[in-house]
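I would like you to sit down with the record closing this message with an eye to the fold:
=====
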Amino acid sequence: QVTCQSLGICCPDYKEFCLQISPYSGSLMGGKTFRIFLLSMATLKSVFNINRFKQKIKTSGYVAKDGKAHCISPLLYETGFIPFEVSTDGGLTFPYSGTWLSVHHSKVSDAEKCTLVNETKWQYYGTPNTDGNLTLTWTHQALAATHINIEVWGYQETGDSYSENWLAEWKYLYTLARGIPNIGKFSFTPVPAKGNYSMWDFGILRITPSSYSDGNIPSVWSNEHALAWHLGEDFRNDPNAWATAKCMEWDRKEEKLPNFMEEIIDCPCTLAQARADTGRFHTDYGCDIEKGSVCTYHPGAVHCVRAIQASPQYAAGQQCCYDSTGSQILTHDSTAGSTPDRGHDWGSPPFMKPPRIPGFSHWLYDVISFYYCCLWSDNCHFYMKRRPSSDCRTYHPPRAASAFGDPHFFTFDGLNFTFKGQGEYTLVESDLTSLRVQGRTQQAHFPNGTGAQVTGLSAVAMQENSSDVIEVRYSEDLNLEVLLNQKIVNFSEQSWMDLKGVFLHSTADQNITVMFSSGSGVEIRGSGGFLTLTVLLPEKFMNRTQGLFGVMNGNTEDEYTFKNKTTMSVHASPQQLFEFGANWAVENGTSLFTYDTEFLLNNFFYGEKHNASFLPVFFPYEDPADPLVKEMVLLCGSDPFCRFDVLTTRSLQVGSSTRLSHQNHKLLVENLKPVISCGWLDHPTNGRKNGTTYLLGSTISFICNQGYELTGSKERICQVTGAWSGDTPSCILRTGLFPFKCYKLTLKNHYHKQGDLSI
């Protein structure tokens, strides 16, 4: 067990058989060399030659000149922690094991990839006004070689869609450059690829040492991209016609495929909702307001999000984009609008087969087709017809519950109370998905403290169904730690991890977000020596929760429900609330926490789950003569939780953190308020409309073209019922007028060489 290390009770050869590696992650494309630590020298002198991933993908390992064992990651068609084993007897036995984190290719750092200088030029090469040299750069130290090869690889998915024989394949096509110096830069003038290779229009470049001939070898990959630069003469001679034919072919194929639109989640109505619903939506890295809103594929948008979970049957994805006013952009109104995806960009478990391959299925079905129809030709209406935006009429925001400070609880239904117990408690659990979120509170001590009995959240552990168990905690030296199945996780290489039944994300300032398959989300951050926790639950959890965060049903009267289903008045005293909290203490048999120190074992595993002898201060005294009170009033104003925590901890810093957490919770609840949408409105034939916002109170006005007059409503307002006011407008021809068109005629002069005569 991993806890044996910190407890000092491991078997002597634990570290030899449970391997530690560095680096611990790399692209799913493979080719990343990692070192294996702590194999004994006696072992290394034997035949170290085979590594096996997932008990079936075999690769070669080697011992370097410095005597260190190394392995090279293979090409994988999935993300997440992949088990691997090491054999030192030619593959007869595999006694040594570890895990390798396979990462979505776009989430790998730029330093690990080669760079397509002016990537747009690469992907438009051969279209009008795009020619000349292309340049590729890379960190030459990434490959221990004096000379390198540059290869072109293509991606395809073969077989019948949504069948067992639907297969994904990365295929080596040809070598672009062979035996060139490894100086970190290569420039060339592209020529059409020979033979059938020019038929591959989506792929990637790989740089490898020239000394290797074949197999799983050290590699540096480029970004996946549209291979315009190597397409054939038919593309270069008339890129618009070539792309139009491809667009039409894609459109015909789409016609025969199942309609995935019916099962994807609707978009949030506003940018505020989209950024607040962190259990179900996450920033689309291609359009991020935090990074300057560089939205190449969605000009006019300031931020896009993607649904975290793929749709259940077809593994499709949802994308939602918003403008500077916070309104959703729809493809009916603009090519910058949100477009759903037949293949979820991040893939989906169990991966391995289309359309669940991370990144690449999405490219094949949703991105290269965008090049065909929208970027290389003027047929975007075909693309938008197959990828129309979802509006937000059926979107229901989640409910939020929070805990922070000394500790204060805000339930899903909006009730708040303070429970200062010491122990381990069920914050929320649900029989809907076997969701469990547990919190540990510990006594805290502050430099200016008076010995008052102060507790705060020090650890939160959670699991849903049979997912991995995630725990976030303060260590004994007050460092924030994240544990995955009792093992401390290192975010030094990756901030996003695809795990079993759960996604895990950490920001640079250690805000931890846990996203479960059900759409429930948990956010945790360190704050003034205590943890601040927020739990977000979708509407389907209504009437299916219990614990300290209460019964989520919109009714505060049953918020204080005990395990035996009896309830207590919402006007209960702090002493009674102390009894309510104690009732929700967890038991060792159901605890999700890790007990890997003597302190945790003695105080929480062997000790009481609720420390009945710990008596907190229920009503801190506010002494007018206390000099701290004046500073407290200036800091806290009327915030009762800030004032409470300053008085109990004697710390303005804690009070400030509590005040900020309280403000953040109120803002979150405000951002998650339901918004009424009346749905998209079209303009009338032979007319136009003003306005592209379709939420409560929005007004859309209509104008007819010259020669036509409007019948129906000149403007329509989105009403509280979710319906538009007025009647559908029409533009009809004015009485006595006849429609006409202008034509430009061109006559061919067959008798003279002067050319065309235009009338």
Summary: The chain has 14 helices and 44 strands.
